[in-house]
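[job 4471] stage=fold_predict status=RUNNING
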Amino acid sequence: MEFIEDVGLAQSDTTAGFFSYDAKKLNTIKNSPPNKPLLQVSPSLKALSPRVPPQHKALARRTKATLACRKSQAWRVIQDPLTLNYLERLGVIYSTSANLSAQNYDPKIALELAQVIIEDRRGLYASQPSQILKLSKTRKKRLR
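[job 4471] inference complete, writing structure tokens
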């Protein structure tokens, strides 16, 4: 699975999404600002350990929510077995919903924008995005 320079389209544990090692490339295809921070997804907490504050490691292991510590850093540890099938091979990678900026998911556009398509038995569909929790040293706040 050669993903280094490509943008992939796959069903994540929450909704259809674009995946790439290049955050700027994802922002470009979505018509988003080039420096817009993006979520990083990981198959395990171990891959994210240097970035996860120790007091929030248990939450990061068990939640489906996206966790943010700073404006430019957000991550989610994937637990869904079907998503893990390809994510374990890719490691930590940038992810964003498979739609143009400020628009709804359109399967035809998503398929045109992706260079690699990973489809499992679920197919590709839009669904509720994950919650976003902002973490501080002492508490968490729900942003979405």
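[job 4471] summary: The radius of gyration is 14 Å.
[job 4471] exit 0
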